[in-house]
Amino acid sequence: MRRTLLAAALSLLVALPLQAQQPTRIDDTAMAQAATLRERALADDTGWKVVESLTTEVGPRLAGSEADARAVEWAKAKFKALGYDKVWTEPVTFPKWERRSESARVLGASAQALHVTALGGSPGGRVEGEVVRFASLDDLQKAVPGSLAGKIAFVDYRMERARDGRGYGPGGRVRSAGPSAAIKAGAIGYVMRSAGTDSHRNPHTGMTRFDESLTPIPSAALSLPDADQLARLTALGATRISLQLDCGWDGEYTSQNVIGEMTGRTKPHEVVVIGGHLDSWDLGTGAIDDGAGVAISMAAGHLIGALPQAKRPARTIRVIAFANEEQGLWGGRAYAQKHAADIRKHQLGAESDFGAGRIYAFAAKTPDYAKDAVAKIAQALAPLGIEHREDGDGCGPDLSPFNAIGMACAGLSQDGTDYFDLHHTPDDTLDKIDPKALAQNVAAYTVFAFLAADADGDFGSAPKVPEVRK
Amino acid sequence: MRRTLLAAALSLLVALPLQAQQPTRIDDTAMAQAATLRERALADDTGWKVVESLTTEVGPRLAGSEADARAVEWAKAKFKALGYDKVWTEPVTFPKWERRSESARVLGASAQALHVTALGGSPGGRVEGEVVRFASLDDLQKAVPGSLAGKIAFVDYRMERARDGRGYGPGGRVRSAGPSAAIKAGAIGYVMRSAGTDSHRNPHTGMTRFDESLTPIPSAALSLPDADQLARLTALGATRISLQLDCGWDGEYTSQNVIGEMTGRTKPHEVVVIGGHLDSWDLGTGAIDDGAGVAISMAAGHLIGALPQAKRPARTIRVIAFANEEQGLWGGRAYAQKHAADIRKHQLGAESDFGAGRIYAFAAKTPDYAKDAVAKIAQALAPLGIEHREDGDGCGPDLSPFNAIGMACAGLSQDGTDYFDLHHTPDDTLDKIDPKALAQNVAAYTVFAFLAADADGDFGSAPKVPEVRK
């Protein structure tokens, strides 16, 4: 039944672009102004000051922690200080997970501490047992049920370094799917080589999920040198470890998406959406994940809003600092749900959530009638060293739920070569951001948002049937 | 009185080299054999296997900890497994310092954790107070007595990166002298920017000393990003932190210098001494500090000992794995004390304790009659990319007490450009060692020890009045 309805809806969706539609255009005046904004942004340090302020004054801001509330207040105040015309919040409610303490030790003749961090969503508890090493998630998933009874599973998969972050797909699956696979094989605990590309004693956290039918077990990530160590020890002989986590779920919490707008000149009720997520993991100060994204988008909106009224773009620039991305796109999903009826008012969206490396590519999946306008945006981005591509990374995690139901989106791909050296670790701190690369990002988002907001015509935002999610 | 005696002794000392002395010589056969050993060492992985074994199977080995005893057993067994002719231990007794836990937090509106580690020798305790930042030790030392009453002193000195590690002089003084300066100004606690050159959330530990008349205060090092953070916060306004250390002195412990010998062919009672220190700080696994030095010297002795009896050098190769270097050269001082009467039997000494970077320079301070032999050793080292210098780094910390009372010493200078990224941090782990650079070190020590041991004549070891130590 559901499938029949979906098929009918999809056929309707396919039919829509066939309607006659004027090409979307960006005029020369807008292009000239975009060029001015671009140079101004490159010389401006607003982005740096914003990320410095957030990471210093708020610091780590785990969703649901006391710092979450401080971050919300910070964002409201920062939007106002940056001259945003409207600032408001929209509630986002989610289950609250807390980390209190975590440790692990090799027992016996090679007794020593291991640096671990609990995976988000892990239960607390102390387990002790022999470690069984698997080179990959696949190998663990093939383990015979019961074969790990009383043991601790260790997936020692080494994530690939890549500019586009493609290594995080398989690396992240070790984190999301590993614990459930371990439980199915009978394990009492789970450890993994962090989904990261560095060589420091700083483990990478991140969410895991347990299949609903299973009883969760303590699950943690080892730093990469600790994973090396455990691999060597298990190769030498039977190795027992203890894993002690004090963490877990504790009720619900309501945070806020914090939204700032610079009102458009002629179509103030239509918006271009940019943003980042305000929450971070608790281990670092969330500089690259995602203080940078918040700063880039806040600074871009600020630069556009600082234009004289007559030079403002036609549409409104809406900047969203999303709540709780890390634990499951809670802010992005709440936004999509709340604004589902307004999809057509969303001209185009893009989120910055892949660090602070330079943007090297731009892509937007849009109907044919908008291709010229997209090419114009690409042309204005080219002096920043940004290549126009047909296919990109999508519009960032928090806008993906809204994109799934119809909002048109663009992607500004950042160089993520070093991103997974720092991602979700204590090392995600301000010193890892290059101010010049950050300014390049601000320039790109400024150009992008300005031109998209000033275009004559749209980029194809229209309601569609949501994708069926697993 | 003491000065008069010393002057008399020194005039005697100056007189000694004036006696007629045959030049020390190294013959062509020895040079040819050194060349063979050099190439053999470059292709050999004994050094790598030794440091892998020590850092993996023993792991961190803080002097006085249960792992100290395991390290001693490991060293005895490893010497035997490597074919050393004689293996023994010599006791080294020292006060035992323990680290149990450590934490720090910014309090108030920017509440967040700071990554700290207690300085060795610090007392435990919890202090809470406003932070007063000083850009240098000098600035703190100028603080008016009583001006820091109830406050926590923070020295934010940034150590210089250099190949020869010269930045550690001023950087290390912030650690050794800072706490006492803070106490004199009335402070209740002391924190410092780690004496390091990295940008990771891994603070650098190391010993501090309190002036005897003072009551020690909790003293810790911040990781470099945490020092950045605290500097920014104090610049924004009054900043209070809490510092909680559970650590301190706990009685005495007796560890062992572990010694292995490859017996010389014709002068077995004369020795060339090489070595490293067996203890490490507890945060890392002591790979570069100083598993590498132990491995380099053990492997060098092994390669020389593996020669057919007829090709062995004239003198014995003595390899020492020193106890407790980190907390005050306890092993080195014990060795000097025990063997003071045998200085002339020590042909020449060199310790490896500056990581695992390539050796780039060789120097030996010797009498004129030994210059030709030193030049021959330099000539045999040159193909390894090692330059002959007149002045070097001395013979390493653990041999410096023996050198002070007369043993001739040589220095093989390692490239320490990255050494203080890792030194005394959790990041001092095996993955930081380049196996090829390690093999170059082994080759250099093999060549050096072989030629020094086979030389006809000596390098000037003779008792002298100990230097007056502060």
Automatic annotation (TrEMBL), chains A, B:
Signal sequence residues: 1-20
Any Pfam family: Peptidase_M28
Keyword line: Carboxypeptidase, Endoplasmic reticulum, Glycoprotein, Golgi apparatus, Hydrolase, Lysosome, Metal-binding, Metalloprotease, Protease, Secreted, Signal, Zinc, Zymogen
GO MF term list: carboxypeptidase activity; metal ion binding; metallodipeptidase activity
Localisation per UniProt entry: Endoplasmic reticulum; Golgi apparatus; Lysosome; Secreted
UniProt keyword DNA repair present: no
Keyword Coiled coil tagged: no
SUPFAM superfamilies: Zn-dependent exopeptidases (SSF53187)
A GO CC term attached to the entry: lysosome
Residue ranges of every copy of the Peptidase M28 domain listed in the record: 257-442
GO biological processes: proteolysis
Quaternary structure (record): Homodimer. The monomeric form is inactive while the homodimer is active.
Protein name in the entry: Carboxypeptidase Q
Species this chain originates from: Thermomonas carbonis
Taxonomy of the source species: Bacteria, Pseudomonadati, Pseudomonadota, Gammaproteobacteria, Lysobacterales
